[in-house]
Write a structure and sequence with these properties.
Blueprint lengths: L1 H136 L3 H120 L2 E9 L20 E7 L3 E23 L3 E23 L2 E9 L4 E9 L3 E13 L1
Antiparallel strand pairs: 1-7, 2-5, 3-4, 4-7, 5-6
Helix pairs in contact: 1-2
């Protein structure tokens, strides 16, 4: 009985220690979860700060690009103004040169015309002198008429020459004007080409800026992908921790269910009967003979022990696993275990019974002593039934 009680107390102490250990494990796991959540929050804050810094850097780069564009536009405007001023100066120089050339040509033409006119006048004078000679020689009317006709012809020739000279001058002026127009057109074409080149340069700069912006956007997208991957990994870690908690809870369940669902039936029947009977009879009589009789009866102990132990254990385990393509795994595990243990111990003990009778007879007296000692039978029956059911 004392040993059974001690075993029960030890079992209770072990159960309490197991419960305390499990509670400590649960507390440690909760602390770990809290620490992981704090780490996650810190990581998220760091990532947000990094994103803000990147956005600020992007804004600064955009502002710098805008400033550069404005500076380039200002420089282009200044260059255009300088080019226009240079073109105006060139046009003025060209006009001055043309005027100088024209003036020189006009002077030359005037000189040439004067010379021609002088030559013509000289020839006319010669002709007049000849005509006078002819007049002197020929004083007839017909000759005079011929002379008049000749004079008229000469005048007409002079007029024709003058007209031709004027036409030549007009043609020269037209040619100069055409040359000026061609020069102006060439200058305009050059300006247009310069403008086109500037526009192309601006387009190239804009394309470069767009490429830079696209690269920055790609960098931002990569950073966002990295952040998403980190979050995914953190969620996976949390999932694993939750699975570990579930496993621990299942272990706790499996450990506590046998303790909660254990049915212990202990039946102890102890019958102890002790009967001690001592009878002493003394009688005195006078007999002539002496007889001594000693009778000893010894009864041995018979012990019968019967132990019957029956254990029945039934375990059923069903596992179902379903896997889909969206990275979702469902695992269902059903475990049924039934353990029945029956122990029956029957102990029968028969104690020793001793009966001693002593008779002493002397000449003068007879003494009879009877001693009877009887120890009762002790029967102990212990029946223990243990049923463990857990799922």
């Amino acid at each position: 009985m004392i040993s059974v009680l001690q075993q029960q107390q030890q079992l209770l102490l072990l159960q309490q220690q197991l419960l305390l250990l499990l509670l400590l494990l649960l507390l440690l796991l909760l602390l770990l979860l809290l620490l992981l959540l704090l780490l996650l929050l810190l990581l998220l804050l760091l990532l947000l700060l990094l994103l803000l810094l990147l956005l600020l850097l992007l804004l600064l780069l955009l502002l710098l690009l805008l400033l550069l564009l404005l500076l380039l536009l200002l420089l282009l405007l200044l260059l255009l103004l300088l080019l226009l001023l240079l073109l105006l100066l060139l046009l003025r120089l060209l006009l001055l040169l043309l005027l100088l050339v024209l003036l020189r040509r006009r002077r030359l033409l005037r000189l040439q015309l004067l010379l021609l006119l002088l030559l013509l006048l000289l020839r006319l004078l010669r002709l007049l002198l000849r005509l006078r000679r002819l007049r002197l020689l020929l004083r007839r009317r017909r000759l005079r008429r011929l002379l008049r006709l000749l004079r008229l012809l000469l005048l007409l020739l002079l007029l024709l020459l003058l007209l031709l000279l004027l036409l030549l001058l007009l043609l020269l002026l037209l040619l100069l004007l055409l040359l000026l127009l061609l020069l102006l057109l060439l200058l305009l074409l050059l300006l247009l080409l310069l403008l086109l080149l500037l526009l192309l340069l601006l387009l190239l700069l804009l394309l470069l800026q767009l490429l830079l912006l696209l690269q920055l956007l790609l960098l931002l997208l990569l950073l966002l992908q990295l952040l998403l991957l980190l979050l995914h990994l953190l969620l996976l870690l949390l999932h694993l921790l939750l699975l570990l908690l579930l496993l621990l809870l299942l272990l706790l369940h499996l450990l506590l269910l046998p303790l909660l669902l254990t049915y212990t039936s202990t039946s102890t029947i102890t019958t102890s009967t002790t009967t001690t009977s001592t009878t002493t009879t003394t009688s005195t009589s006078t007999t002539t003979s002496t007889t001594t009789t000693t009778s000893t009866t010894t009864t041995t102990t018979t012990t019968t022990a019967t132990t019957t132990t029956t254990t029945t254990s039934t375990t059923t385990t069903t596992t179902t696993t379903t896997t889909t393509t969206t990275t979702t795994t469902t695992t269902t595990t059903t475990t049924s275990s039934t353990t029945t243990s029956t122990s029956t111990t029957t102990s029968t003990t028969t104690t020793t019974s001793t009966s001693t009778t002593t008779t002493s007879t002397t000449n003068s007296s007879t003494s009879t002593t009877t001693t009877s000692t009887t120890t009762s039978t002790s029967t102990t029956t212990t029946s223990t039934t243990t049923i463990n059911i857990f799922t």
